[in-house]
Structures are given as structure tokens and as C-alpha cells.
Amino acid sequence: MAGKNDLMAVGISSLLEDLFEAERAVRRAQAELAKQKASELLPLLRKTAELALAQGEDADAGMKLARCAELLGEIDGAEPVDLLIDVLAADAPEARLAAGEALEERAFARFKEVALGIERALTRLPKESPALSELPYMLAEVPEPGVLPLLNRFLGHASADAVASAIEALAQLGDPGARQHLRARIDDKRTVDLGDEDAESTKVTIGELAREAISLLDEVAAAEGETRSRGKGR
């Protein structure tokens, strides 16, 4: 029995080493690709991303999109930002995660570049694109003054899911100045489903979400006012 266990341990150890070597090979390849001229690499990444997006839920497509997103994050310019936003609409969670992280990192370093890409996305993407409901959550993580007006633009979008995401992002942002924009949505009767894949359906109207966000921001404003009053009293 001991001999059999030893053989199993050797087999597992060998597989583990194969995994490490594969990861080292991936990193070497990515490092070499990152050194290439953007003018030569970008067209290949664009073609690969477009083909992979067309494959839907295919696991291999998700892997390709995730790797493309990591490389696109290293290239400056408008087109890489647009492609990263396109990958946010992928069916594969690993691809969406890689694209979101690359966009967020770019937004911290060069916010205007990402902001312009998001403005383009609001007009160029079809209203049913999942990317439009992913972008507000990414924006809420970026400490830039331009985030608030950009999120406010989502509130007027034709996609109910994009509007709902913007409302939740504005509530997360915690800026009472957003209340005036949220009030425009309190009579919006469109419904969205807030349940995830593993939860039961939870349908609410845009108006209900807006009123809840306004209530939360009212509390923030009241707390800030109380803090200021205490400061003056000292």
C-alpha cells in the first residue's frame, strides 16, 4: 500500500511541476509579447478578441480574452480601451475580471483616457451590452472628480440594467451631490432583476432603486452636516 501511495505522490508532484512550468512559459510569452510594437501587436489582439467574443461561453475563448485583456492593459491609446470595454461583455467571468482590472488600473493612471472610452461606449455599444452595466461598478472604485458626472450620464441611458448599476454605484460613492440627478429617475417604472445566478429573482423598479439611493445619501449628508456643526462648535 505504501508503494502505491508513493507512486500517487510522485504523480501529483509531477503534475504540479508541469503546472508551474506552464505558468512560467505563459509569463515568458506575455513578457515577450509586451515588448513588441503596439502597431504590430494591437491588430492581432483585436482579431483574437473579436473571434473569441463571437464564440460565447466557450472556455478556450474565455482564456484567450483574459490574456488579451492583460496585454491590452499594457498598450496606450483609445483602441485598447475600447477593446477592453468590449471584453467586459464576454460570457466568461475570467475575461470580464481581467478586463475590469486592466481598465481600473488604467483609470488610476490615466483617467481621461478611460473616461473618453466610456463616453464612446455609451453611444457605440448596443443597449443590451453587458459591458454597460459593468462599467459603473468599475468607476465607483476610482477616486477621481470626473467619476460623478460620468456616472450621472449612465442615468439617462436606454438600458435599464445600466441605469440600475449607475444608481448602485452612486450610492456606493456616497456623494450627496448625486441626489439631484437621481431624483430624475424616481418615477422610472422599468424593472431590473438584482438576483445573481445562484439566487432567486429579485425584481425592483428603477424608481425604487433611486429612492433608496437618495435615502442613503440623505443620511450621508445629515452625518456630514452634523460633523461640520461639531467642528464649528469647538
Task: Give a structural overview.
- The chain is mainly alpha-helical and 234 residues long.
- The chain folds into two domains: 43-125, no CATH class; 130-234.
- It has eleven helices and two strands; from the N terminus they run H-H-H-H-H-H-H-H-H-H-E-E-H.
Put the structure in a nutshell.
The chain is 72% helix and 3% strand. By secondary structure, it is mainly α. It folds into two domains: 43-125, no CATH class; 130-234.
Largest sheet: 2 strands, antiparallel
Uncertain segments of ≥5 residues (pLDDT<50)? none
Helix content: over 70%
Global geometry: globular
Q: How many domains make up the coordinates?
A: 2
Q: Give the distance, in angstroms, between the N- and C-terminal Cα atoms.
A: 78 Å
Can you write the helix and strand succession as a string? HHHHHHHHHHEEH
Strand order of the largest sheet: 1-2
Mean pLDDT: 90
Q: Gyration radius, to the nearest Å?
A: 22 Å
Features:
mainly alpha; single chain; 234 residues; globular; two-stranded antiparallel ribbon
Provide the fold topology.
Elements: H1 2-34, H2 38-54, H3 59-72, H4 78-87, H5 93-109, H6 111-124, H7 131-139, H8 147-154, H9 160-173, H10 179-182, E1 191-193, E2 203-205, H11 206-233
Antiparallel strand pairs: 1-2
